[in-house]
Specification:
By secondary structure, the chain is α+β, with helices and mostly antiparallel strands. Helices cover 56% and strands 16% of the residues. Strands 1, 2, 3, 4, 5, 6, 7, 8, 9 and 10 form a ten-stranded mixed beta sheet that branches. Strand 2 (91-106) and strand 3 form a beta hairpin. Helix 2 runs antiparallel to helix 11.
């Protein structure tokens, strides 16, 4: 009975005599709603950037690269390492690859890239995930052909079907060492002989495919045999390219493989963007702090409402106290009022945030046009649209924090109001 009376008074105090909702109550609800909207929208967008970036890395880079340690002695042959990799729990596929840095040239243009030589059959899992990033050509990897990114294609000015000259990194490094040796010679004859012996041995490859660099990365891809020929490996390979079931557990996966392959090194897909991912984590931590401040500011609007109501209803509080109401019963009246405002405001903010997230790209377009800018959104390009990723637990926690702050904000002035002396309140 007391609870119903407290709720009745709380709702009555929230409504003035001549209108359904007072201006002060509407402002309080709006303040809470804006705070919740900001927390949900910003958190979803920030998390969306991180998820999109992770998906970009996972969708382009091999999950785990296992390579033979050049300093290791008596390392087991790569065939044994390949068997161990395929037998490891959580492995989707494991394929030998021949790779390294490849310098590419056409006419007066030069550039370089990391190249992976993969068998189309054994490396199908690595290559198939690149299909959605393919702009032109194919990923069939015929002999003496190469798939490059659109970034490198633009630098070289080539299209699918045209040829480029390539130089393996070890050839270039050997040429640099020979040139340095020639410069140290005092005899002009010896110097000339060394310089004449320098040969880069360029090879010609045909461009068979072009990948979108913004989503598919900047790597190049050739067949396994072509890669072995380019990097002069014979029948050997550089390492093993692996795809695993749970890319997020790549570190744990590699740690589980290391004891069985002590002479091999491990490179993870996270290594390519480790600093960027760490920066995103730091940004999210600071953003959570900023959003918490916004929530506290929104809760102050509830406190202002409670203070205003307790001041206006001072005589009624005195009457309740004179009739024998206990302090906690008076606190309940204003605490329920804060809870009602907090719940309604949180619900309105949550509904508004869902609408904003749903229309986020349309809102961006309108704001861009309103400010005289232009919208450049190419389908499939990284960050061509505003990403958003909603985690139910994050949304639930945000709503709970919002209501909790409103309760605390309403409890403080309600506690002071309950301690007023009945005689003093009635005399006022």
């Amino acid at each position: 009975m007391v609870n119903r009376a407290s709720l009745f008074l709380a709702l009555r105090y929230l409504r003035p005599k001549r209108s359904f909702l007072s201006v002060i109550t509407a402002i309080s609800i709006l303040g809470v709603a804006v705070g919740v909207l900001m927390m949900v929208v910003v958190r979803a967008v920030m998390l969306g950037f991180e998820v999109d970036f992770r998906d970009t890395l996972v969708g382009a880079e091999p999950h785990v690269l296992v390579a033979k340690d050049s300093s290791a002695q008596n390392a087991p042959p790569w065939q044994e390492a390949l068997k161990a990799a395929r037998a490891q729990a959580g492995t989707v596929s494991a394929a030998p690859y021949a790779g390294g840095i490849l310098y590419m040239a056409r006419d007066d243009y030069q550039t370089g890239t990391q190249v992976f030589g993969l068998s189309r059959d054994e490396g199908a899992a690595n290559l198939n995930k690149l299909t959605r990033h393919l702009l032109d050509g194919s990923l069939d990897l015929p002999e003496d052909s190469i798939v490059i990114s659109d970034y490198h294609a633009q630098q070289l000015g080539v299209r699918v079907g045209e040829e480029i000259s390539v130089y393996a990194s070890q050839n270039v490094n050997q040429a640099v060492r020979q040139y340095g040796l020639a410069e140290d010679q005092e005899s002009e004859e010896k110097k000339k002989a060394i310089l004449d012996a320098i040969k880069l041995n360029p090879q010609t490859l045909r461009v068979s495919g072009v990948l979108r660099s913004e989503t598919g990365g900047y790597n190049g891809y050739v067949s396994l045999k072509t890669g072995q020929k380019l990097f002069q490996l014979g029948q050997e390979v550089t390492g093993i390219a692996m795809e695993i079931k749970d890319p997020q557990q790549a570190k744990e996966f590699a740690a589980g493989m290391k004891p069985g392959l002590p002479s091999w090194t491990f490179t993870l897909w996270t290594d390519a963007g480790e600093s960027r991912l760490a920066a995103m984590q730091n940004e999210q931590t600071m953003m959570k702090f900023v959003l918490l401040i916004i929530a506290v500011v929104a809760a102050f609007s509830v406190m202002n409402t409670t203070i205003t109501v307790t001041t206006q209803k001072r005589r009624e509080i005195g009457v309740l106290a004179a009739l024998g109401s206990r302090p906690w019963q008076i606190v309940n009246v204003f605490l329920l009022q804060a809870i009602v405002v907090g719940v309604i405001g949180t619900f309105v903010g949550l509904a508004g945030s869902m609408i904003v997230l749903w229309l986020r790209n349309d809102i961006r377009s309108l704001l861009t046009l309103a400010t005289g800018g232009q919208v450049h959104a190419v389908e499939g390009v990284f960050l061509s649209t505003i990403p958003a990723h909603i985690q139910p637990w994050d949304v639930t926690l945000t709503c709970l924090i919002s209501v909790a702050l409103c309760v605390v904000a309403g409890l403080i002035p309600a506690w002071f109001a309950s301690r007023v002396e009945p005689a003093v309140a009635l005399r006022d």
